[in-house]
Amino acid sequence: LLICAPTAEIFVDTSHLIRKLAVVTVISLLLFLLLAYYLFGRVIRLANVDPLTGLPNRKYFIEGYQDYVKDANKDYSLFLLDIDYFKHINDRYGHNCGDCALGDLAKAARQYLGAKALLARWGGDEFIGILPAGEISTLLEELRHHQEICEDRGYGKMTVSIGVALLKGHKDLPEVTKAAD
């Protein structure tokens, strides 16, 4: 018995299957790329952000510092800020309260300085930042004053000490941080 049929009719199911396979492949590739983009962003964030304060970390600051040093047309100042008697907070109220104090200071620093500063957690209870030289004293004084008038948040009153150094020319970061310290 011999059956004859046109070729297009014989391969109609194959063509549909190939189209469906192509669509599934494209959708899978798009989903894979979106997942890779999301995971890459998370890895970059984990590498550059201090998990306790949500501020950029020391590594990120060192990389960003180079951009400010290259811009010779503007005057910037670097500041180092640390919590006074931080060890006392940890010893008296516990490390959870110490962590809370760091988070509160980071939040206030972002609020008062964030839009104009390259701001980061330098380590321990120290924070570092770069601000326009003409505005640094006003902005830092507002932050310091905010910390002094804040209510007791479970770890006593918290004050901060701040050191400032002017960035002139192409100063080496250790040299500038030493001057601010």
Explain this structure to me?
α4 crosses α5 (95-113) and α5 runs antiparallel to α6 (136-149). The chain contains 7 helices and 4 strands. It is elongated and about 100 Å long. The chain has helices spanning 7-10, 12-48, 58-70, 86-93, 95-113, 136-149, 173-180; strands at 76-83, 118-123, 126-132, 160-167. 57% of the residues lie in helices and 16% in strands.
Task: Please write out the topology.
Layout: H1 7-10, H2 12-48, H3 58-70, E1 76-83, H4 86-93, H5 95-113, E2 118-123, E3 126-132, H6 136-149, E4 160-167, H7 173-180
Antiparallel strand pairs: 1-3, 1-4, 2-3
Helix pairs in contact: 4-5, 5-6
The helical percent reads 55-70%
Number of helices: 7
Order of helices and strands: HHHEHHEEHEH
Shape: elongated
In short:
The protein is an alpha+beta fold. It has 7 helices and 4 strands; from the N terminus they run αααβααββαβα.
Task: Offer a few descriptive terms.
alpha+beta, 181 residues, 4-stranded antiparallel β-sheet, elongated
